[in-house]
Amino acid sequence: xxxxIPTCALVDGxxxxxxAVLVDGARITGVVPAGAIPAGAEPRRLDGTLVPGxxxxxxxxxxxxxFNDAPTVEGIAAIGAAHRRFGTTGFLPTLISDDLDVIRRAxxxxxxxxxxxxxxxxxxxxxxxxxxxxxxxxxxxxxxRPLDAEGIAALTGxxxxxxxxxxxxxxxxASDIEQLVAAGVVVAxxxxxxxxxxxxxxxxxxxxxxxxxxxxxxPLGSREPGMVGAALDSDALVCGLIVDGHHVNPxxxxxxLRCKPASxxxxxxxxxxxxxxxxxxxxxxxxxxxxxDGACRSDDGTLAGSHLDMAAAVRxxxxxxxxxxxxxxxxxxxxxxxxxxxxxxxxxxxxxHAADLVLLDAAGWVRETWIGGA
Length: 374
Description:
Elements: E1 2-11, E2 14-16, E3 19-24, E4 27-33, E5 42-52, E6 54-59, E7 61-62, E8 65-66, H1 73-84, E9 88-96, H2 100-115, E10 123-127, H3 149-155, E11 162-167, H4 174-182, E12 186-189, H5 196-204, E13 209-210, H6 226-233, E14 238-241, H7 250-257, E15 265-267, E16 281-284, E17 287-292, E18 295-298, H8 310-321, H9 325-332, H10 334-339, E19 357-360, E20 366-370
Parallel strand pairs: 1-5, 6-9, 9-10, 10-11, 11-12, 12-13, 13-14, 14-15
Antiparallel strand pairs: 1-2, 1-3, 3-4, 5-19, 7-8, 16-17, 17-18, 19-20
């Protein structure tokens, strides 16, 4: 057993000094005063702040790899390795709208990656193709399609880990959302023009997430609250935030944070292959994407995911949104864990939880990352 003794640690939502985190194998076995380490435990002092590992539910790529192009165990491993450097200890490889055969291949690859023990893989995020073409963003209009029985079968094929699906609720029957939820799928709204009443009906059917709040969705209006209004008005929804200074003005995000508790928000990256890579350009479904000034854009200026990593998202939440480090980290760990139904074993420094940990320096940069105690 190891006893990790950091300068301070985030425990139960607060930064605490003079604590030791006991790790035995892949699990945390206790959090005790630094002066009460059990006999036989190997003490290790850490210069920095120990926090729960970051969980990123929207990872399109990293390390030069795009999941759509490499829906394989090897592709997933490369993406995970790139993001570990930035404190991501759990992630959902994310497939942008594509054909059903690609979805099936991606699901099979994630299933195999989890079986093989690829570090950090918690499941899959299928973002589309069951979207509203009017809010497609960078998604290919040719790939967008209605949800049918074949699509539901593809979305419910994962036997290991969690499945998150982003869809446009106004384009999908409530009964289909209920069927997905009954099969264990976490349903989120995104790339949607839903009216407020349509979004609330989807919540009643079991929808629990909102993909990149404000981006590619019906805005908050004076007489029609839209998808944004429903997201901020519903405590049942956990809203993903891309805090990179490009996707949403920080003032808009600060206003959102005043609408409901921080537990109703989670940080995501929407990361592209450039993260953890020297690449300054890549190709997304035939479209040339350039990375410039920290943003990924197509030749016509459309945002195409992001060049954001989770550690930077946490730092940006502190500097741009004015939240404290404890809140920023909670939005990067406990919130996504709760959305995915993993809050009993991930997202906190607590007895019985996975030893998925990140050591941050005083400026919020990652010094060390542990996944399952390794």
